Amino acid sequence: MSGKRIVPTFLEAVRNMPTKKTASLEQLEAYVKFMTPRMDLLLEFPMHEPFCKLRFRRYILAKKKLRQLCQRLIAQAGRRTIVGFGDWSNTDVSGLIKECPAGPVNPFQRELKKHCRVESIDEFRTSKLHSVCHCEMKNRYSKRLCKKDGVERTLKVHSVLHCTNNGCHGMTVNRDENTLKNMLMLLIECKLRSQPRPLAFSRPRT
Q: Which domain of life is it from (predicted)?
């Protein structure tokens, strides 16, 4: 079957494909009966020229987009730009994060290294400690009305944290902004000025 003829046939098979995400045996049986005679068609499609061209075009467009993002990032300082890149994907000692981070994080980091200086920042406790006093912050809670059952519950607010240190006067900060300030401090003090990492952000010795 030629490439021009297989594309509409493949699209028709994909559009009419029954769902396999079901607990119904009847629907699952319908999926198996639909897929069995079309299995060769679906497996052979990635080998045909239209799909190969599409995959290559997607690769080229992705590389172009990453390059544009890097150029926008270094627009002001050029190659003198210094970027602190969090290494959370490389320090998963507990195994909670599986495989690679979602999205083109690693390709973006590799492309960025071609345009400027990139320093890896250990993100340990950067989201838990206040950027001003380096004290551990507490979660904020709010009462919300659940849409499913209409019951009011006290839920944790993930986006903000509360500092209980007296010197900060009970300051509440945005979690992401506070993390960025801590990472910037670590980039300047530890990477650029070669100062030891603050004890509050250091990992416990085993």
A: Eukaryota
Residue type, 200: A
CB 38, CB 13: distance < 8 Å: yes
Contact present, 53 and 85 (Cβ < 8 Å): no
Which residue has 């240190």 as its token pair? 165
Average pLDDT, the chain: 84
DSSP letter for each residue of 64-120: HHHHHHHHHHTTTTGGG-EEEEE-GGG--TTS-S-SSPSSSHHHHHHHHHTTSEEEE
Q: How far apart are CA 53 and CA 195, in angstroms?
A: 51
User: What pLDDT, on a 0 to 100 scale, did the predictor assign at position 96?
Assistant: 47
**Radius of gyration of the chain from Cα atoms?**
25
Vertex 109 angle, CA 90 and 193, to 5°: 80
Q: Please state the pTM of the whole predicted model.
A: 0.67
